[in-house]
C-alpha cells in the first residue's frame, strides 16, 4: 500500500481559537485551510501555497471579495436544512396563529378571541429553491401549504408546485401569501425584494429573510410595514452585522430581528463534511460543494 504524501493543513476559526488561544497563524507552506472566511481572507496573502480552503460558514463573501482566486474554495451544504425549516415554520406560525395579538391581550387581561387562521391552503414562495429551500418546501407542504419557488434556472425539485426564473419574480409573488428568501449575496440579488415586489403580497403576508441581507431594500420594507401593507417581517441577516444600535429595523412595527442564528455551523457537522472532502482530495477526486467565484456561490 502506497503511503499518501504528507500535506500541511491548518485550522483558522474563531471558535477553534477560543479553545486554543495560543495557536499560531498558519505557516507559509500551508496547502489546505479549514477556516472562517473572514479570517482566511485576512491570512490569504501570507499563504502562497494554499490550494484549497474549506469554509466553516455558508457565506463566503470575504473570500469572494479578495483578489486572489488561484485555489479551490468549498462551501457548506446539506447541514442547515433542519435548522432553517424550523426557523421558517416558527415565524410563519407565530404570525398566522396570531401569537402577537394573544400576548398583547394577556398583558391587558383582555379575553377577546381572534378568528382562527391556519397555514393550510396558503401559498409559500421560496426565493432560492436549492437544497435548503427544498427542505423548507417539504416541511411547509406537510402543513398543507402550496409551495412555489424561484431559482436562477427556473427549475426546482418536484416538491414545488411551480418554479420561476428571476425575471418572473413579480408573477410568482402575486400568488403568494408569504415569502421566504434564502438567496446568496450576488449583484443580481441586491434589492431584489423592493417596493414593487412587496406590493404584490397580501396584507396578511409575512416575509422571512434567512439568506443574505443585501436582498431586501431596507426603506421599502420599513415603509411596507409602517403602512401595514404586509403583516410582518422576520430578518436574520443584514447588510451590516452586528446591526447598529441606531438602525430603524430595531423599532419598525411588526419586524422581528434575530441575530444570524437561523442556521448555525455546528463543529461536528463541519468536521464531518471536511473529512469527507479531505478524502476526495487525497484520492484525486473532485471536491464537493465547490464555490464558483464568478457566480458567487
Protein architecture, described:
The chain folds into two domains: 9-78 and 265-282, 3-Layer(aba) Sandwich (Rossmann fold); 81-257, 3-Layer(aba) Sandwich (Rossmann fold), CATH 3.40.50.720. With 297 residues, the protein is α/β, with parallel strands linked by helices. 37% of the residues are buried. The two termini are 38 Å apart. The mean pLDDT is 94. Helices cover 30% and strands 14% of the residues. Residues 90-262 form the D-isomer specific 2-hydroxyacid dehydrogenase NAD-binding domain. This is Glyoxylate/hydroxypyruvate reductase. GO terms for molecular function: NAD binding; oxidoreductase activity.
What's the structural blueprint in terms of helices and strands?
Blueprint: E1 9-12, H1 14-19, E2 32-35, H2 37-43, E3 52-55, H3 61-64, E4 72-74, H4 81-96, H5 99-107, E5 123-127, H6 131-142, E6 146-150, E7 162-164, H7 169-173, E8 178-181, H8 195-198, E9 206-209, H9 218-226, E10 232-235, E11 255-257, H10 267-282
Helix pairs in contact: 4-6
Pick out its properties.
oxidoreductase, 10 helices, pyruvate, 2 domains, Rossmann fold, seven-stranded parallel sheet, oxidoreductase activity, 11 strands, NAD binding, NAD, elongated, single chain, alpha/beta
The strand count comes to: 11
Alpha-beta classification: alpha/beta
Mean pLDDT reading: 94
Order of helices and strands: EHEHEHEHHEHEEHEHEHEEH
What is the CATH architecture descriptor of the largest domain? 3-Layer(aba) Sandwich
The biggest beta sheet is recorded as:
7 strands, parallel
Count of individual helical segments: 10
Q: Might you state the CATH topology name of the largest domain?
A: Rossmann fold
Gross geometry: elongated
Q: What spatial order of strands do you see in the largest sheet?
A: 7-6-5-8-9-10-11
Number of domains: 2
CATH superfamily of the largest domain: NAD(P)-binding Rossmann-like Domain
Radius of gyration over alpha carbons?
21 Å
Amino acid at each position: 500500500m502506497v503511503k499518501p504524501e504528507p500535506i500541511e493543513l491548518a485550522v483558522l476559526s474563531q471558535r477553534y481559537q477560543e479553545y486554543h488561544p495560543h495557536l499560531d497563524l498558519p505557516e507559509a507552506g500551508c496547502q489546505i485551510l479549514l477556516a472562517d472566511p473572514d479570517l482566511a481572507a485576512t491570512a490569504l496573502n501570507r499563504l502562497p501555497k494554499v490550494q484549497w480552503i474549506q469554509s466553516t460558514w455558508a457565506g463566503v463573501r470575504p473570500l469572494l471579495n479578495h483578489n486572489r482566486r488561484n485555489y479551490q474554495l468549498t462551501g457548506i451544504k446539506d447541514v442547515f436544512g433542519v435548522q432553517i425549516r424550523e426557523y421558517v415554520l416558527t415565524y410563519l406560525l407565530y404570525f398566522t396563529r396570531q401569537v402577537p395579538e394573544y400576548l398583547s391581550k394577556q398583558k391587558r387581561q383582555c379575553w377577546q378571541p381572534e378568528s382562527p387562521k391556519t397555514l393550510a391552503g396558503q401559498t409559500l414562495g421560496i426565493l432560492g429553491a436549492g437544497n435548503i429551500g427544498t427542505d423548507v418546501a417539504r416541511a411547509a407542504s406537510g402543513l398543507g401549504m402550496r409551495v412555489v419557488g424561484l431559482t436562477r434556472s427556473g427549475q426546482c425539485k418536484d416538491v414545488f408546485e411551480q418554479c420561476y426564473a428571476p425575471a418572473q419574480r413579480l408573477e410568482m409573488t402575486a400568488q403568494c401569501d408569504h415569502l421566504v428568501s434564502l438567496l446568496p449575496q450576488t449583484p443580481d440579488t441586491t434589492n431584489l425584494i423592493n417596493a414593487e415586489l412587496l406590493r404584490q403580497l397580501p396584507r396578511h403576508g409575512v416575509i422571512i429573510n434567512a439568506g443574505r441581507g443585501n436582498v431586501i431594500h431596507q426603506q421599502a420594507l420599513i415603509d411596507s410595514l409602517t403602512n401595514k401593507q404586509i403583516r410582518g417581517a422576520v430578518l436574520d441577516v443584514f447588510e451590516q452585522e452586528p446591526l447598529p444600535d441606531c438602525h430603524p429595523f430595531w423599532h419598525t412595527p411588526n419586524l422581528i430581528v434575530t441575530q444570524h442564528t437561523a442556521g448555525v455551523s455546528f463543529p461536528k457537522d463541519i468536521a464531518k463534511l471536511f473529512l469527507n472532502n479531505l478524502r476526495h482530495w487525497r484520492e484525486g477526486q473532485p471536491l464537493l460543494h465547490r464555490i464558483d467565484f464568478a457566480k458567487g456561490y
